[in-house]
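Lab manual, section 2.4: Encoding a predicted structure.

Procedure: take the sequence of the chain (268 residues), apply the prediction step described in section 2.3, and record the output as structure tokens. A sample record is shown.
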Amino acid sequence: MSNRKLWISALRALHRNFRSTSRFSIGIYPKLESSGVFSFSYEVGKPPGYGSCRDRFAEICSFSSKNFCSESADGGVSRCWNCSAVSTSKLFLSCESCKSVQPVDTSVDYFQIFGLDKKYEIKGDSLEKKYKDWQKKLHPDLVHSKSEKEKEYAAEQSARVIDAYRTLINPLSRAIYMLRLESVHVDEETTVSDPELLAEIMEIREAVEEADDPQSLNKIQCQMQDKLESWSKSFGDAFKNRKFEEAITSTQRMTYYERVKEEIMKKL
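Recorded output:
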């Protein structure tokens, strides 16, 4: 296939993928330069409250025809940039054939990276084991003898795996991430207007300020952990039943209790 057709196919595939996974509208305008290389411009429509769609789209599209072999035009299948082997699965962090580390595929979500079902309840031990397995394959120190291109891919993939692990291992960040996968925006800085909750938080913070020994602080810490677990369960139930407003309320409660725990840790 010619470079011209290859790039057009790539742009169309990216446009379809991005449009199907977000609420943003995108116009793509490819142009064939005199050098024979395609350039393009695009216009992005973005609703208030969302992060920069333009930046995200630019990141997805910042690749050259030289690196394009990881996305073939053969029905959208993924091919290794090094040996052109076809991937047998959606997850394509490293080639099954030549073991080369592949470029980051942002369409693979954090649950897919670790081979987990997209469920709120996950086992920490299982997640940690899979995280360590991936780090063994992707850590830059372990690919020092590889090409500069593969070193760069390994560094990017390793950073993504670390971010995925840190997001999923924490109940609060996992909850917020799962809502975002459903295109439900969560503003972590929203002030809760529930008088009962505000009174409770003020009382807890006063207790933290007045506590002058580790035993008292640890007691409050345990209380916060119990509240976190209770609201974590509430989130899981609400999310499972797609009651997203209730799920958001649960994350707001969890955020307050998490912040109290952080204040306690500073005093211990």
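Check your result against the sample. DSSP finds nine helices and two strands in the chain.
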